[in-house]
Amino acid sequence: MRNIKVIAVGGLLATTAAITGCSKDAPSGQVAAVVNGKEVTLQEINAELQASNIPASADKKTVQRELLQRIIERKLLVDAATEKGIDKTPEYQTQKRRADELLLVQLYAKQQLTAVPVPSTIDISNFMAQHANVFGQRQQLSLDQIRFPTQPDLQKLKTLEKDHTLDAVGQTLTGMGIKFERSQVGLDTGSVPTDIMKKIDSLPQGEPFVIPQPGFITVNVILSRRPLPVDEAKAKPAAVNAWRQEKFGELLTKQIEALKAGAKISYQNGFGAPAKGAPSNVPPMVSGAPTGTPGAAEPAKP
């Protein structure tokens, strides 16, 4: 009878181990799980955590377990895709090369950012004064705006330079057969690079200015301005970050220019680099601008 009890207890322990996943062969240390022979490490989970927008109030252990399941599911889907030979297709190889290059650039940029010094109090005071449109004199602009798709031949749009009202711009576009939409929109001056905002402010009242954006162009006239309050407690840390980003952008631009100067680059006919200073429809690869969004505002007439 005693032997039967021992066997029963042993069976119970074995069952419990199976249910909880605990055994002498279970992953341990830096390995959180093993999927079809492939290890999932704590480092992978932490990388997933950093890339995810998880609320600070969330339970870290629970989040780690949830992210582990996401990684496991991804690895299983990767196995399924590999079995179908998708990893051998030209499309995959091109996208993988692009992803690898972007990751290397991102990590390189992160490393280079550490070389940018922390600004002094005077640096920040000067920076905030120089970028008044973002800080002390930030405004909400009300714009009368005409919007139309980017045109293949931007030189044709130079004819808009003779138009000094938005009505005249509309008439010119209609005469060119370009369809457009007209509406009133808002613009936060803090989203516009300071040098561009200064050019806009220098225009006569009611003078149209152009804001190219990826895929479309807008022509605008300022209807009114309203001051925007700035939280000083948040403004200074933002200014420190913007100052460092600006210096970082300058550093990286110099590095890219030096690398291009020392590289051997040849182009197929028609694929040469565009002229310097020409409007771009493509956002920068690594932005160092303190403010603004892709497609900076640019006055039609400085």
Low-confidence stretches: 1-22, 288-302
Strand order of the largest sheet: 4-3-6-5
Query: Structural class, judged by helices and strands?
Result: alpha+beta
Helix-strand sequence = HEEHHHHEHEHEEH
Q: Rg from C-alpha positions?
A: 29 Å
Architecture overview:
- It is a single chain.
- The chain has 302 residues and is an alpha+beta fold.
- It is built from eight helices and six strands, in the order αββααααβαβαββα.
- The strands form two sheets. It has a four-stranded antiparallel beta sheet, covered by helices on one side. Strands 1-2 form a two-stranded antiparallel ribbon.
- The longest helix has 31 residues.
- It is extended and about 80 Å long.
- It starts with a helix and ends in a 40-residue tail after the last helix.
- 12% of the residues are buried.
- The N terminus and C terminus are likely disordered.
Q: What order do the helices and strands come in, and which of them pair?
A:
Elements: H1 2-20, E1 31-35, E2 38-41, H2 42-51, H3 60-83, H4 90-113, H5 121-130, E3 139-149, H6 166-175, E4 181-188, H7 194-201, E5 209-213, E6 216-227, H8 232-262
Antiparallel strand pairs: 1-2, 3-4, 3-6, 5-6
